[in-house]
Amino acid sequence: ALIRLRDYRAPAWRVETVELDFDLGIEATELSARLLLRRDASQNLPLRLDGENLQLLSIALDGVPLPATAYRYTGNVLEVDGARDGSVLETRVRLRPAANTALEGLYLSGSHETGFLLTQCEAEGFRHITFFPDRPDVQSRYSVTLRADRARFPVLLAGGNPDGSGELEGGRHWARFVDPHPKPSYLFALVAGRLEKIERDYVTADGRAVQLKIWAEADAIGRCGYAMDALERSMRWDEQAYGRNYDLDVFHVVATHDFNMGAMENKGLNIFNAKCLLADPDSTTDDEYRHVEAVVAHEYFHNWSGNRVTCRDWFQLSLKEGLTVFREQSFSADMNSAPLKRIEDVSLLRRAQFPEDAGPLAHPVRPAQYSEINNFYTATVYEKGSELVRMLAGALGRAGFRRGMDLYFERNDGHAATLEDFLGALGDANGTDLMPYLAWYGQAGTPRLKAHGRYDAVRQEYTLTLAQHAPGTAGAEPRPALPIPVKLALFDRDGGMLPLHLDGQTSEGITELVVVLAQVEQRFVFGNVASSPVPSLLRGFSAPVILECDYTPGELALLLGHDVDGFNRWEAGQQLAARAYEDLRDGASADALQAWCAALALLFDSHGIDDALLADLLTPPGEVELAERETAIDPQHIHHLRQRLQLRLAERLGAEALHQRYLALAAHTTIDMDATSQARRRLKRRVLELLNLLDRARAGELAAAQYHDAPGMTDRLAALTVLLRGQAPQAASALLDYRTRYADNALALDKWFAVQAQIPDEDAPERVLMLERDPGFTLKNPNRVQALLGAFVRGNPSGFHRIDGAGYRLLAERLIALDALNPQVAARLATAFNGWQRLESQRRGAARAAIAELAGHHGLSRNLAEIIGGVLNH
Ligand code: ARG
Ligand code: ZN
């Protein structure tokens, strides 16, 4: 059954207060819920509550036990007769946490003997715990009492402020938490078990003393310090950048190895996938460190953008997710290098969101309908959603955006809001109308932006024509033009920036400005232009579009060499490399390839450039991005072409120069986490990878030494990857060493599975089968599934898409087994079939057969069925 945005109705019943009383146990947990009900008098509807396969033990209305004739429970809806405004409904249910493999609702993390209990409720997990109107526009005050055996569950946590605890008979104890802030049910959480903690005192800018506590199992608590620092930085940043203070006396964060997603912003009790929280130099790479910092910030920022102001319904999901990703990205840019962060974010957008938006699973940032909401926690809702907020922020400027956000929080505090509320507040605070941007939220597909420049030497004028068109939507209704902000600069042929005089206006000294394309096509005329310029367009990636501009290779090389916008410099290199790739593929001229290599060779020797940026400049677009340029995709051919492209670059730089650079960088190896040390490691890895293409023996020796001497995971994993890619003789012993060294470190072991799953050779499917037989592999742990199967289907295009279809069959078989355990994880993995229609015909046939067989399987979850149906039927 499809849920539709246009069918939204306000809730007929609300819950003013909730009292939950848990008797916790691993095998069985019982809980009583006491709901104070409020009825919307304008709707004359019976009381209907969500409740998913709950074992109902007792039910009473206004203190009177209900006879079986007074209520009906279908397995997902409980209908109760006789409820009035102000009625109190009491239910008692029994749950089976240890049997819950879906990791939604109340479940067990770890073993029966030593594991702990926790909850995950977003989006609709609360209905797996108790009967409730489980929708975000019902906001209630929660009091939660937990009771359990003290020895087995020494730590008892729930959201809100602590409100007492004590002993009970028979070695049991209790703890109560009261949350003063009304919240939707998806933000409920509890945790109970044997956990250790680290603590820090924090005082908010508005003077509240807060205890920050991070909890983890004993073997992990030593790796929580970095997250604590990141949390404190996030709290300060939100005070300064947005004037937002924390609003409870405690802030709990818990790490678990068993989690379907990255992390969850439950009010006062954030729960994290361990891979997004734990960090130490021995087991965490630099990229992962930055990811931990970003996710800690993301969940913390949700306290305002998500919790204090929540979503009216799940169609508005990007209201909190797109906004919070934007806030998180801005924070990371402030804490680290802003241009590098932008490159990372746009790369992710192109790798994950553009293909999604171009395939059968494409949906608007605000979807119009869904069958299973968990399938809509997508790159489109998150990453494209963030890009839309970025455009709005850009349109208002720093001060204007802050004014708008202040008004948004003020107007909607304690409410469940819509995207219209968001755009309305941003616009009203600035006396401007941002509603035209709403069109961005309602249409799927990546818009194309065509740019064409014409220079008139006589009039000294440069005319830039910009035009937009929506992606292939045959038969669809005509779409409104989108407002597309284009940040631009003009360069002269020596690489200097020209002053900009747009449409006769003269503004002294302006060399960069934003024009907004508001119609299908528009012309912008720049005066006083002394010579034919090279435009730098869409600087900083000012809009999430695909730019089509008829640059010559020389013009792109000029931007690559001279653009001062770090992002656009990288972008020019990416465009040039993509051209070189297409020329290689088509056997066309080598102009672009030569221009790319020559420009990079200059930068390589110049030393005037940040090591990390240089590493990124030396990396051509990935295989997934290159595939977006093809009509009949052959991933193995793409892989080989991209390898040839990199080999040419390596040849241009030269084995000697690469080797010397490697040694110079290696001489400074540390395990420090400062930007310079991270940048050095990044470039060192890239240089070693390029050398590995030229001279495997030499690179293999360097990598083997680097593996053994590595002071931290970044260097160790990089070396291991190089050994595996080069099929070095030292690879086997390094793999064995790693397996033994990290036998008890789940997060490090995940990477052992992932690097091997990503080896891009013919044997990849068989290698995955072999790795599945490792005793460390299990389908029950989402991180392990992601590490092996996820890395294979998403991180190894040429291996997964082997022409005989072995990869597709393997995925289809695993999806069936996985779906029976954990539908959310199965559905996410299944999106790897997205794009199969654009494969060349033999692979397409094999993929279709595997998907069709899967679709015919009996009893697929709603999650998986929706993805498979979507992938097949378009
Ligand atoms: N709200 C969480 C976050 O982005 C993610 C929850 C994902 N939930 C899901 N059912 N997929 O911070
Ligand atoms: Zn989020």
TrEMBL record:
* Catalytic activity of the protein: Release of an N-terminal amino acid, Xaa-|-Yaa- from a peptide, amide or arylamide. Xaa is preferably Ala, but may be most amino acids including Pro (slow action). When a terminal hydrophobic residue is followed by a prolyl residue, the two may be released as an intact Xaa-Pro dipeptide
Report domain Peptidase M1 alanyl aminopeptidase Ig-like fold positions: 445-549
- InterPro entries in alphabetical order: Aminopeptidase_N-like_N, Aminopeptidase_N-like_N_sf, PepN_Ig-like_sf, Peptidase_M1, Peptidase_M1_dom, Peptidase_M1_pepN, Peptidase_M1_pepN_C, Peptidase_M1_pepN_C_sf
Boundaries of every Aminopeptidase N-like N-terminal domain copy: 99-187
What are the alphabetically sorted keywords of the record? Answer: Aminopeptidase, Hydrolase, Metal-binding, Metalloprotease, Protease, Zinc
Query: Which parts of the sequence belong to the Peptidase M1 alanyl aminopeptidase C-terminal domain?
Result: 555-870
Name the domain of life this protein comes from.
Bacteria
Swiss-Prot/TrEMBL cofactor(s): Zn(2+)
**SUPFAM superfamilies associated with the record:** Leukotriene A4 hydrolase N-terminal domain, Metalloproteases ('zincins'), catalytic domain
Keyword flag Cell membrane? no
Judged by the first EC level, this protein's enzyme class is: hydrolase
UniProt-listed NCBIfam families: pepN_proteo (TIGR02414)
Family stated for the protein in its record: Belongs to the peptidase M1 family.
Q: What is this protein called?
A: Aminopeptidase N
Q: Which organism is it from?
A: Rhodanobacter glycinis
